[in-house]
Design a protein that fits this description.
The chain is of the alpha/beta class. The chain is about 35% helix and about 15% strand. It folds into two domains: about 5-150, no CATH class; about 155-445, TIM Barrel (Alpha-Beta Barrel). The protein starts with a strand and ends in a 6-residue tail after the last helix. The protein binds zinc ion.
Length: about 450
């Protein structure tokens, strides 16, 4: 049985600070497979705040300027009392994103992220590093936790995911999509190299009598060869020009999903473009997916479109078990500083959320964007997975089935997916990762849907 830990507060710590710190403490405990209980039954009791030599240092959580000290970023300023719990809270609540401005597509602007606010590399899992530092604080106070806290976790579990933004359901769909990819490359991105590489790749495929665009079959075949099962997110509502080209009740769509499910892949919900702004919309979309016979346990928002924490309540109403929408489409990295499925903190209710967030740490189009800026996508992708592996992490990567044929984004980024599959990491579906995490997080005292 795992050791039980408890947290109590010095009476001078204001009431409104209990929930955030308690949440950070439980995130630490769950990440270490420690159960959280009350002080009377615990193997180790921590006291937050106060002057006692055995107390955890408590910053006031208000003052201070972001700074770098001891190799870690400090959102509340480090000062002399190194309060790792309040820093973990800042990350898992993404405090800097609360009420932040949105970009032209209605998403919270990346410039408001914790990493950007602190001026640190987003490809380092900073919350995980604060948790590691807290291990040392905890061990100094409770050496009996050593066997658990010193157990080295390493290696990364990768969750392959594919958002179904396009499916060829009518004759001519593939040609229209290809023309659109070329138009985006030429007019929106003004990238003549990309236009040339898309044209070249499509011509080669046609000459070899293969469809001009890769697709679900191509990815399924790759994953079959590597014995990997993944998560496929499908759009069930067509309400906005940016939603998918297909209708969910189209027979081609249904048979594609059935073929995926028959091979053990997970079918998740790709929340439609405007869903996050309409209360109850995600619940209705989830009901549609489930009525078609699919599990629908997780959600990723199309275009990663959401306004942050309010999404958690919509997900709870939709009885989703997890979300995986907090990543970026133009950069890689750990948006919440976490490299494993975790329970985020809802800044709109000042309470923990009741659904898991599965960190989306990289996607094909972001790597393509970075390749344009001179970054080697293969090296960068490997570095992100290495960082996750340092913490024994479990992270999600997104490759659209439409990119593996080099007919949408920078040459080589789509096919990089197969190189990741061949690295020898452990690959499971997102739902499997959340199912594995659930008992541990329940034991840490989280109330989960
Ligand atoms: Zn999408």
């Amino acid at each position: 049985m795992s050791p039980r830990v408890a947290l109590r507060f010095d009476e001078r710590v204001p009431r409104d600070r209990h929930a955030p710190i308690d949440h950070a403490f439980r995130v630490w405990a769950a990440s270490r497979h420690l159960a959280v209980t009350d002080a009377a039954r615990a193997d180790a009791v921590f006291t937050y705040g106060g002057d006692d030599a055995g107390a955890l240092p408590a910053s006031d959580g208000v003052t201070g300027r972001p700074t770098m000290q001891h190799g870690l970023p400090w959102y509340f300023g480090a000062g002399t009392r190194l309060d790792h719990l309040v820093e973990v809270h800042a990350w898992v609540a993404a405090l800097s994103e609360h009420d932040a401005p949105v970009d032209p597509s209605g998403r919270i602007d990346r410039s408001s992220s914790m990493a950007a606010t602190l001026g640190v590399d987003p490809c380092v899992a900073w919350a995980e590093r604060h948790l590691d530092a807290f291990d040392r604080v905890a061990l100094a106070l409770h050496p009996q936790l050593d066997p658990v806290l010193s157990r080295k976790r390493s290696g990364v579990t990768v969750l392959g995911t594919h958002d179904l933004d396009f499916l060829p359901v009518k004759p001519g769909d593939t040609g229209v999509r290809l023309a659109r990819n070329l138009a985006v490359a030429a007019l929106t991105m003004r990238d003549p190299r990309l236009v040339a590489s898309i044209t070249g790749a499509a011509s080669t495929r046609l000459l070899r009598r293969r469809p001009a665009l890769g697709g679900v079959d191509a990815v399924m075949e790759l994953e079959r060869r590597h014995e990997v099962r993944s998560t496929w997110n499908v759009l069930v509502a067509q309400l906005h020009a940016r939603d998918a080209n297909y209708a969910f009740d189209d027979s081609t769509v249904r048979s594609t999903l059935d073929a995926l499910a028959a091979r053990g892949h997970e079918i998740g919900l790709h929340g439609s473009y405007t869903s996050a702004g309409r209360p109850g919309a995600l619940a209705r979309e989830m009901a549609t997916l489930r009525a078609a016979g699919h599990d629908g346990r997780g959600v990723r928002q199309h275009w990663l479109r959401h306004a942050g924490a309010p999404l958690y309540q919509e997900l709870s109403t939709a009885r989703a078990r997890y979300d995986s929408s907090f990543g970026w489409s133009d950069a890689c990295g750990f948006r919440h500083g976490m490299a494993r499925p975790f329970i985020p903190f809802d800044t709109t209710t000042n309470q923990p959320a009741s659904v898991f967030e599965v960190p989306l740490v990289m996607m094909d189009v972001a790597l393509s964007d970075m390749a344009r800026r001179g970054v080697d996508p293969a090296v960068h992708a490997a570095a992100v997975l290495e960082e996750a592996g340092r913490h024994g992490g479990t992270v999600s990567v997104l490759w659209h089935d439409t990119t593996v044929s080099d007919t949408q984004i920078r040459r080589g980024v789509g096919p990089l997916y197969e190189r990741l599959l061949a690295r020898g990491d452990r690959w499971i579906t997102s739902a499997e990762a959340v199912d594995a995490a659930r008992p541990v997080w329940l034991a840490a005292g989280f109330a989960l849907d």
